[in-house]
Write a structure and sequence with these properties.
alpha/beta; 45% helix
């Protein structure tokens, strides 16, 4: 293994930050406030969100509440802007909880800065849609460390109030077609080609043994399993599954992938993001 990769490709969610924890907390803070504002049963409201998420194949569909059937029924012919004004406390609940709970894992910022200073090319890879991924990178102030962001091509709803739609710098985002999504090794090989780096000089770090590590090993790059990203709160996970965009077909596909990649083994397992720096030290070297 090269002690310093020319290119580090990093997953974002549950690799750089705890996506499960922050999103579950933020989403259900919004739900609790919606239940105070709109006379609807909780389960019907959650069913409505799940339906919208499935429609858009995205559990983070921006302003999904504008499309939830129970909410639209309650507000009748009101415009989107009128509905948003009435439900502003719910949006505020989501935003304020996100601000409090969306945090980088310990050591992430320092590691990205160190790798960048050493000359390693850093790129992000995510299956979040562009606005959501870019917003998180901006909020966490780490987007500047990444040369490119490879993000899933998908629905990008315009801001319903005509407000600011954050646009990344030209050339920063490179869209990944949905048919080439994880764990397709051709996707990772294409990233190597686009960044002009041989697979043997690339490290890939991610939390999913199937989607990240399985893909990385089959592409011939060094596979770093972020084991810490799998340690999610069981109740947070249950609450996310309740409103997930996954259909029965998606569940079957996931089961098939787990079987197909059952033999996937990481080259290295890390329990903190900054363990990457330790792996770059020569054998027997003392930590500073």
């Amino acid at each position: 293994m090269n002690r310093q990769p020319r290119l580090l490709v990093t997953d974002l969610d549950n690799t750089l930050y705890d996506w499960v924890g922050y999103f579950a907390a933020s989403f259900y803070a919004m739900v609790d406030e919606l239940l105070r504002l709109v006379p609807v049963e909780r389960e019907r409201l959650l069913d409505g969100f799940r339906d919208v998420h499935r429609l858009h194949h995205n559990s983070e569909h921006p302003f999904a509440l504008l499309e939830v059937a129970a909410i639209r029924q309650y507000f009748g012919d009101a415009s989107d802007e009128e509905v948003l004004a009435a439900l502003d406390p719910a949006l505020h609940a989501f935003n304020s909880t996100r601000k409090r709970t969306l945090k980088l894992y310990e050591g992430v910022r320092e590691t990205l800065a160190s790798l960048s200073a050493r000359g390693t090319i850093l790129v992000g890879h995510t299956e979040a849609i562009v606005p959501n991924a870019c917003f998180r990178l901006e909020m966490l102030e780490i987007g500047g460390f990444l040369k490119h962001l490879y993000a899933l091509d998908g629905s990008q709803a315009a801001h319903p109030r005509g407000g600011p739609n954050r646009s990344p710098p030209p050339g920063y985002v490179r869209l990944v077609p949905r048919e080439d999504r994880k764990p397709n090794p051709a996707l990772l090989l294409d990233i190597c080609r686009r960044e002009s780096v041989q697979p043997s000089e690339v490290w890939y770090v991610g939390d999913s043994l199937t989607r990240d590590i399985g893909m990385a090993t089959r592409a011939g790059v060094v596979a770093m399993w972020a084991r810490y990203g799998t340690k999610v709160d069981a109740e947070d996970w249950r609450r996310l599954v309740r409103i997930t965009h996954w259909t029965d077909e998606d569940v079957r596909r996931e089961a098939e992938l787990k079987l197909a990649f059952a033999d996937a083994k990481p080259d290295y397992t890390i329990d903190r993001f900054d363990d990457l720096l330790k792996l770059m030290q020569p054998p027997g070297a003392q930590e500073p």
